Every structure is written in structure tokens, then in C-alpha cells.
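Shipment paperwork, digital attachment
Item: protein structure file
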Amino acid sequence: MANRLAPVVTPIGSGSGLSTGVLLPCKVRQQERLQPSRSTGFLFMNIVILAAGQGKRMHSNLPKVLHPLAGKALLAHVLDTARSLVPQRLCIVYGHGGDAVRTTINAPDLVWVLQEPQLGTGHAVMQALPHLDAAGTTLVLYGDVPLIQTETLKQLVHAARDALAILTVELADPEGYGRIVRNSAGEVVRIVEQKDAVAAERAIREVNTGIVALPTVYLSDWLGRLSNDNAQQEYYLTDIVGMAVAAGVPIRTTLAQSESEVLGVNSKGQLAQLERVAQRRTADRLMEQGVRLADPARIDVRGELLCGRDVFIDVNCVFEGRVVLEEAVEVGPACVLKNARIGAGSRLAAFSHIEGATVGPDGVIGPFARLRPGTELAAGVHVGNFVELKNSQFAALSKANHLAYVGDAVVGSRVNIGAGTITCNYDGANKFKTIIEDDAFIGSDTQLVAPVTVGRGATLGAGTTLTKDAPPDTLTISRARQISIPGWKRPQKK
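Attachment content:
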């Protein structure tokens, strides 16, 4: 669409909080029916999100509005912002890839409206009109403009109580965008597209974002009078501006806080640019809340990141799902955390991967450690380099510092697990549990063939293959008898 904005990266420092998560329109005559919403203070609000575009320039089988930004679909970002306004009607106009869009995004509060064929923005809103409540305001958003801010939309909706309100933005380079043309009194008289603009109009820096709000009674009337008498033979929502002028309806504008919040996505390159804008927003928000970042340009949050006081995050870390970092946690470079909770005072060394796991207070993890789903570590547990834990519970002060795999195990307190230790938990068909009780010592290069129990205070000698329970307070060892062969010589190359 000619009036949509493509990204030019302009990082900003705003975002949500984080701390210690062809249907023909019908006319409605009674504008007097407008009533304030008890939930928001706004007029009864409809929100229509246009999400029917194919996105040909994405060169993807995935519908454009489902492409991920900061860990969730573009359309999901728009929906989050829309829901923050507490609308009484929330309609999504879909088309290309409709089944996939509905399956991925569907929720009880959504009204789905099919646009088929796709004949322009005005035509898209026509399809939603029968589902809108006439008593109130309708806000039109776009499913591929994910960074629009709640406060900006609140201002726009307030401006639309008795008027057509248009969200605009000032660009240093407005080339290609529809210009906002005003008269000598500063009143909006029309929107002129780039191809139709004269030289003086092309010099205008204020452009149309496509986002509008207006009383639904006006919308119903004007949509019914739209024409497709143009080169594209489409119905353009922007044509309602001229109708508002002709009807003497006030036209008010709200200026976007920054260019970045009204940028749309039309290509993979633009998606990547917006990703950095979104991540910089998150980084700025984290730092405002007291988190220390080694480099705010090198962090990726693809979900929800909750941080306590005095948290430090080094470069190139990735956070997915819901991650909680409690007070004074330190995260080393290039760590990946997904759906994890890290206890107060814990330190994660470089290249540690933690998914679906909990680390207790004062833990020491990594470098190059991997905690898989179901892992729960109590206070003061050490998990060192190239150690992998899966579905295992470690009580306080236990250690596995080197080159070990522990899966489907329950480990007591003050246990030492030596280098090269493996719990043999899988027989090719079933998983079995290993139990290691308090104060046990597991020597290096030990295999524990589950199901097996190591008793309290037991010691397993290095190289042991344990196939039976080891009694408490006892040394258990199993290894081949050592022999030396005198006179043996190494083979020589021939």
C-alpha cells in the first residue's frame, strides 16, 4: 500500500514494563448513541486489524503477519497493543494464508472476517463493518505494523471522539509516502500520494501512516460511498479524508512519537531492521529498571524477561519464552536461556544453555554447560564445563564440574560427581531413574546403569560401572584387573 511505511531504523527507548511479565456497509443514523466505555474511559471502541496481505516481497510460504519479531508473530504484537486499549470489538480481517493465521492466533475475543478477493484497504474495512458496534469509535490498525505504542493510540482515539483522527509521522525523507496537505489554517484538506503530488506537496515531510480512528457512524456512511475508479480498481480507505472535508467533519492528526513505531514490514530485510528496533527498546527498558548490559545492541529477548535488582547480562545472550533472573544474577556472554528461572546471586558462565530448568540461589553454571527440561538445582549447586543435566534434581551444594551427563536422576546434598560420569538412563525403549543420596562421591569415568541407588556417604571408585545398588558409607569399585606386559613394542610403519 502506498501509504504504508517501510523501516528506517531509529532506535527508541520505550516499551512495556519488565521487573521484580464484498459486503456493503450499512448506515447508522444515531450518532447520539455514543457512550463512554466503563473499562477505558473511551467511547465504545471497535478495533479492526487488517491482516489479509500476501506479502509477496517476503518470498515465503508463511503469511506475512505470522513472521516472528522478538519471538512472536507480527500480528501478535499488534493484538497485544490492541488489547491494552480494552476494545469491545476486536476484528481481524484476514485473507492470504487465512487458515494458518487463524490457527496460530485464534482466541475467544477475536472476530475473524474474510476478505476475498482483496480489493484495497477500504474494501477490507467494509468486510468488518457488519461486526462493529455503531455506538462508538472504530480504530483501524495493520497486522504488519508491530511496534505501534499504546499511548500513541490512546491519543488518537481521544482525538476521534467527534472527528476523523489520522496518525501521521514526520520523515526526513518522505519519498514514496502519502503527504498530509493542510490549508493556511493548518487544517487537513487531503492526502496526496507521491505520484499525484506537485513539487510543493512533495516537499511536505508529514506523511500518512494509514492508521485512523473515527466515529463508526461516519465510517459506515463513508465506506458506502467509496469508489474503485482508479488505476488499481481498489477501494482506498484514505478516500474518506475527502468525504470528511466535504461533510465539514473535523480532521485531527496525532503525531507518532517516533518513526519506528509506525514502520511496516514488507521484506525480510525490513523485518530484520525492525527486530533490532524492538530489541533496542527492550534493552533500554531493562537498563531503565536497573539491569546492567555489557552492550545494549547485543541482546535478544524473544519472550518475557523478568529481572531483579543488580542483574548483569553480558553480550550476545538470547532469552526465549519466560525467563526470570533474580537479584544479582550474572549472565556471561553467549548464553541461551529458555523458560528458565535463575536464583539470586547465581552466575552463568559463557556459552551455557538452559531450557526448562531452575537454578537455585548462588549457583555456578558453565561455561559450556547445558541444563535441559526438568532440571531443578537447589542452592549452591555447581555445574561445570561440558556437563549436561536432563530431568534431574540436585539438592544443595552438590557439584558436577566436568564432562558429565546426568539424566533422570535425584541427587542429594553435598554430592561430588566426577569427570566423565554418565547415568545410563535409557535402554532404547524406557527411561530409568538413578538415585544418589547425600554426601556420596562419584569417581571419574563412572557409569551408573539405571535403575540404581548410591547410598548415603558411599564412594564409587574411578572407572566403576555400577549395575547394582552401592551401599552407604562404603567404597564400591568395579574395573578390569590391571596388567603390565614386559617387552611389548609398538607397531612400526612398514
